[in-house]
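Cross-posted from the bioinformatics board.
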Amino acid sequence: MRFTINDKPVEAEFDPRTSLLDLLRDHLGLTGSKKGCNQGACGACTVLVDGERINSCLALAVQYQGRAITTVEGLGQTGSLHPLQQAFVEHDGFQCGYCTPGQLCSAIGMAGEAARGVPSVVTADLGDETVTLSHDELRERMSGNLCRCGAYNGIIDAITETFAADGSQKGDAGARKAA
Amino acid sequence: MTPFQYERAATAPDAVRMASNSASAKYLGGGTNLVDLMRETIETPERLVDVSGLSRTIETRPDGSLLIGAAATNTALASDLTVRRDFPLLARAILAGASGQIRNMATVGGNILQRTRCAYFYDDAARCNKREPGAGCDALDGFNRIHAILGASPACVATHPSDMCVALVALDAVVHLEGANGTRRIPLADLHRLPEGRPDIETVLQPHELITAVEIPALSFARRSTYRKVRDRASYAFALVSVGAALDLSEDGSVRDIRLALGGVAHKPWRALKAEDALRGQPATEANFRAAAEAELTDAAPLRDNAFKVELARRTITAVLSELKGDAA
């Protein structure tokens, strides 16, 4: 079965029971995406599929044939971090780091949703097609990613700086790069 | 997870044909519930028919009704501008559920057919009539804070977990089905069953019958509608009680028409017809809202740990209707 993973074509054979997370980690050696709860509750496994964030632990890999998947390994490299990765460093957006790959992918997917005008449950006016990524909006939109170290304030600060603070230009660039 | 064959359907009749070859076949939408249940071996299909590639169109029809392909994602439906403008309770209900990641995966059809999050259903060391008919129910005398207060039976006190379905049942949604004997349509209100003696039979669907679309009839006053969810944490938690409502007021301040439904309280999305009947034609006052809520909750039969839901439902109904009327609540 064929996939595009981090911009590279990949071919793999596997049992249909294999989750996308296990395909990435155990078959392809991409161990950046993490297995926390393995039941969709923690978000550590979050990856981007065609730019949209999903829980790869709940995804059967076979269902995602032919799709473009981005993991944390595809975001940036040593010496050329994604702007969001750099912001996580600067704002102490992690302690142990286990949830970080999922937080990064989730935040990039979230920024793409906001750029497309996807509302959230705390959006006051559903008719408003422009999303302002306020503190409350970010906390709601990132609620699918748990951090047991409690680095939430740093995470929100890093996301705010990258995607919300100085207009959305920087954020759009980041979202495009991942997509 | 037990082994299964995977097939991807190109059309709804194809899907039904593929599933019909195996008694235990299941349709796969986004997988957010089914994959988890398979991992726990609560679901053990020998064949998975992937229907996520079928219609995901959200069509606004000239009469103001909506036709939603069952493979539309939860995110797509909640983002649709017509839904947001004309049926805000539906957008708000969907956005109140799950997480951003799960809403991107989950389909409308799968959301409707998701199974309860009763902990005893998931725990294979517990007795559960839903998982194993005739085994008994450990929730009945167990920790049943999150369980049903309406329509339950001695066999099962589980709740239906969907937020979206609460909005759909309030909106008189109709489910389009494709089966071995052709197509049919049934009101969503009639799709899910109350548990009675057979909580393992959750819907009136025939074997391998597939949800292909959901139709929402036009409802002009649904623009004045909302959804409120009360839960143990502010986000990403199932409802203790939720209320979806649409309110149509006459110029004299009385209730011309109303749609009201509850979540988190029963084995199915609960249309509050008694409360609706109590309010139609009556002045839209807080006292009448409360009386209507009490009319609906007369039949409530709380368990050891969930009597608080009766009061919570009463207050939430009253607050939501007051909010729709324009009073702060």
